[in-house]
Write a structure and sequence with these properties.
By secondary structure, the chain is of the alpha/beta class. The protein folds into 3 domains: 7-99, no CATH class; 130-186, Sun protein, domain 3 (Alpha-Beta Plaits, 2-Layer Sandwich); 189-387, Rossmann fold. Helices cover 40% and strands 16% of the residues. It is built from 18 helices and 13 strands. It has helices spanning 7-17, 23-38, 40-47, 54-65, 70-77, 94-97, 102-112, 116-122, 140-149, 177-180, 189-198, 215-223, 237-249, 289-292, 297-300, 302-313, 335-344, 372-375; strands spanning 130-133, 154-156, 163-166, 184-186, 205-208, 229-233, 255-258, 268-274, 316-326, 348-351, 363-364, 367-370, 380-387. The strands form 2 sheets. Strands 5, 6, 7, 8, 9, 10, 11, 12 and 13 form a 9-stranded mixed sheet that branches. A 4-stranded antiparallel sheet has the order 2-3-1-4, covered by helices on one side. Strand 5 (205-208), helix 12 and strand 6 (229-233) form a beta-alpha-beta unit. Helix 1 runs antiparallel to helix 2 and helix 16 (302-313) packs across helix 17 (335-344).
């Protein structure tokens, strides 16, 4: 993993090669790999060496961050005798404090100012497991009761009326009858807000232009009460295949998968563009993602995002709505893309997201902006754009 292999694949491959491990041993192995991967820069600082072997890195984690006594930590890590005394001084930079590449820590400092410290701290804490109720199958209150009967405790989300957070140890969600019955999907609360901002209504024509695996498509279909026309497009055909399977489970019959992009002039009432992006808003979901991206990711996506947004705009009827969204913290991909779009499209105007229902705490400068340190969600940005009726 330290050489660049994805952490999840390393863990999966290692566990399959050691099937005799107990449940506790498997969990310990996973935690060791993930935490060394996540904290590698902080651990190198504690050891005063950038190329420390992995047993020493594990020792530094166990002793320096998990506060296991030195002799026990050295034994558990297989570090042998004569392990170094760890650096007692506090890390001198944001990057070393929260184990980030220097360029990424500098970027967050520019983007978030004084809030960068709290944001980066939350990137090192696992995000909650959040469910989105399927209103076609259940209400949020009914789902909470059903999950309780299945041994799963939940708490309502503060921002999305569809959200329930798992309260307690992670359950095996895929074994729950309530999931198999299509009563919920796993979806971050911030992601749920993107679908809600579209405010899709029964009988309308709605397009999810970058559908991915289809979580927000299913959300839109439920909001439309499985009526009207709902189109989902994504360049990855395997994702679209999975969407069709999930649609059936969710009780949706009117999702139309588009293998090629829809043509302009569709006359859609609402279009969602959840654009490809640098995904800096979801770094807490993987321990090694921050080390597998490079600085060029900050400038790679805006031309593509603007192009997709322009194509999405051509699908909207006069008086219709267009929502542009990303899962990143980068003004070049967020506000700057919207500004460039509005400069080229005077037939569109920016409008307040979620008027009448979305908390002001979820807004920044007229856009949706939520983040781990302030909302408990992954970081999401969204702009709500409306086309003039004339």
């Amino acid at each position: 993993m330290l050489a660049g292999s994805p952490a999840e694949r390393v863990v999966d491959r290692t566990l399959r090669a050691h099937r005799s491990l107990s449940r506790d041993q498997r969990q310990a192995l996973k935690e060791a790999i993930f935490n060394v991967g996540l904290w590698r820069r902080r651990l190198a600082f504690l050891l005063d060496q950038d190329d420390a072997p992995s047993p020493l890195l594990l020792f530094a984690f166990l002793h320096g961050l998990a506060h296991v006594p030195a002799a026990e930590a050295a034994s558990l890590a297989g570090a042998g005798e004569g392990v170094p005394i760890l650096n007692p001084s506090p890390p001198p930079s944001l990057a070393l404090r929260y184990s980030l590449p220097d360029w990424l820590a500098d970027h967050f400092s520019r983007e978030l100012g004084p809030a960068a410290d709290a944001f980066c701290a939350h990137l090192n804490v696992p995000g909650p497991i959040t469910l989105r109720v399927n209103p076609l199958r259940s209400s949020r209150e009914e789902l909470a009761e059903r999950l309780h009967s299945e041994g799963v405790s939940t708490l309502p989300g503060p921002w999305s009326p569809l959200a329930l957070h798992i309260d307690g140890p992670r359950p095996n969600l895929y074994a729950l009858p309530s999931l198999q019955e299509g009563r919920f999907e796993v979806q971050d609360e911030g992601s749920q807000l993107l679908g809600l901002l579209l405010e899709a209504l029964p009988g309308e024509t709605v397009v999810d232009l970058c559908a991915g695996a289809g979580g927000k498509t299913l959300q839109l279909g439920a909001a439309m009460r499985d009526s009207g026309r709902l189109f989902a497009h994504d360049p990855d055909p395997e994702r679209l295949d999975r969407l069709l399977q999930r649609s059936s489970r969710a009780g949706l019959t009117r999702v139309q998968v588009l293998r090629t992009p829809p043509t302009s002039g569709l006359g859609a009432d609402r279009v969602l563009v959840d654009a490809p992006c640098s995904e800096l808003g979801s770094l807490r979901r993987g321990p090694d993602q921050r080390f597998r991206i490079t600085p060029d990711v900050l400038a790679r996506f805006p031309p593509l995002q603007l192009d997709i947004l322009q194509r999405g705009a051509d699908l909207v009827r006069p008086g219709g709505r267009l929502v542009y969204a990303t899962c990143t913290v980068n003004r070049a991909e967020n506000e700057d893309v919207v500004s460039a779009f509005l400069a080229a499209r005077p037939d569109y105007r920016l409008t307040r997201p979620g008027a009448g229902w979305l908390s002001d705490a979820c807004l920044r400068d007229g856009f949706l902006f939520v983040a781990p340190h302030s909302h408990g969600t992954d970081a999401f940005f969204a702009a709500v754009l409306e086309r003039s009726a004339g």
